[in-house]
């Protein structure tokens, strides 16, 4: 049976998204990626949740590879996770993967029970991550 440290390392690797070198590191530019088909499962009811995830970031040395990002999002399809946690986890995972100058992840989730949710999480290099 693998030890906990080995399992934790495997989980971290699964949460990393493949990247490629940024050939324009000397230029500050913004990349926006929109996933119109985000799905996960409500941890309370087990019902599917649907939404849209918008990622805006200013790359540093690495750029997210889109096909790898698509497969990363598929991990959420059967995962029981609250909206707020999903958006923050996506931000943490993508920052760990590409180490951008800054990044914003926005989750816009489908109306349920007459209520629409929008969750925004931000990262800026050099600022504390939490607090």
Key terms for this structure?
3 helices, elongated, 4-stranded antiparallel sheet, GTP Cyclohydrolase I, domain 2, 131 residues, single chain
Describe the 3D structure.
By secondary structure, the chain is α+β, with helices and mostly antiparallel strands. The chain has one domain (4-124): GTP Cyclohydrolase I, domain 2 (2-Layer Sandwich), CATH 3.30.1130. The protein is 28% helix and 37% strand. The chain has helices at residues 4-15, 66-74, 83-98; strands spanning 19-21, 31-41, 48-58, 62-64, 102-112, 115-124. The chain has a 4-stranded antiparallel sheet, covered by helices on one side. A hairpin with a 2-residue loop joins strand 5 (102-112) and strand 6. It is elongated, with a radius of gyration of 16 Å. Mean pLDDT is 89; it is low at 3-12.
Concise account of the structure shown:
With 131 residues, the chain is an alpha+beta fold. It is 28% helix and 37% strand.
Helix proportion range: 25-40%
Which class do the helix and strand fractions yield?
A: alpha+beta
Uncertain segments are: 3-12
How far is it from the N-terminal to the C-terminal residue, by CA? 37 Å
Integer average pLDDT: 89
Instruction: From the 3D structure, determine the CATH topology.
Output: GTP Cyclohydrolase I, domain 2
Instruction: Report the oligomer.
Output: single chain
Strand content: 35-45%
Q: What is the architecture at the second tier of CATH?
A: 2-Layer Sandwich
The first-level CATH class is given as Alpha Beta
Task: Please give the order of strands in the largest beta sheet.
Answer: 2-3-5-6
CATH superfamily assignment?
GTP cyclohydrolase I, C-terminal domain/NADPH-dependent 7-cyano-7-deazaguanine reductase, N-terminal domain
**Can you count the beta strands?**
6
Write down the overall geometry.
elongated
